[in-house]
Amino acid sequence: MRSLLLFTFLSVCAHLSTAQKSEFPDNAIPNVVDSLYREDQFYIGLSFNLVTNQPSSYSQNGFSGGLHAGFIRDMPINKRRNLAIGVGLGVSTNTYNSNLFIGQDANGESIYSILDGDIDVDRNRFNTNLVEMPIQLRWRTSTPTEYTFWRIYTGIKLSYIYHYKATFKNESLNASQTNIPEVNRFQYAATLSLGHGSFNAFVQYNLNTLFNEDALIDLEQVNLQPIKFGIEFYIL
């Protein structure tokens, strides 16, 4: 009887030892919860570009779009770390297709005019390339172990247009203009992004215009104040 009890005890001990080794192998790396996590993120976005504050006869045609990408550093400001300030750096490229012609006269002065509807036009667009610095107030439902969450990010975006080009093309003329002193190189915009997981919707509204007060069409200011709608993806 004693032998049977001893055999049973040893069998149970051996089983528990084997199970423990299986559950915690020698080379296992324990999961550590990072209570000081950050939501540092790469981002990329696609937008549909509209404009407001335009001349009375101005109209967009075709597709006007944009692409932006960059990186944001996350700096939590509360103990739960679901509220943070984000500061980033990125680049953006944008296209505006419209009936606004931008050229230059014999004296090198800029010319702004609205193209007549009877004129055949293959291409008439204004392109901008910018370096951007987004500054965000970030609220989210994330936790140290939850990587798919709801977010609302709002803030401002400071940008500098480092390159621009106005292009016109039809059967008789192919011209581009890269010297437009009336362009407001520094741009300021309000931004809002909301969504769940990697997929987010965003809107961006420029607080100043693409052109300064010297850009005129028959004494009417050109202005052009972009507003963008699109989708944005955040990648940890």
UniProtKB/TrEMBL annotation:
**Domain of life, per lineage:** Bacteria
Q: Which InterPro entries match?
A: Beta-barrel_OMP_2
Pfam families reported for this sequence: OMP_b-brl_2 (PF13568)
Q: Where is the signal peptide?
A: 1-19
Species assigned in the record: Nonlabens dokdonensis
Q: Which residues form the Outer membrane protein beta-barrel domain?
A: 25-204
Q: Which UniProt keyword terms apply here?
A: Signal
The name this protein carries in UniProt is Outer membrane protein with beta-barrel domain
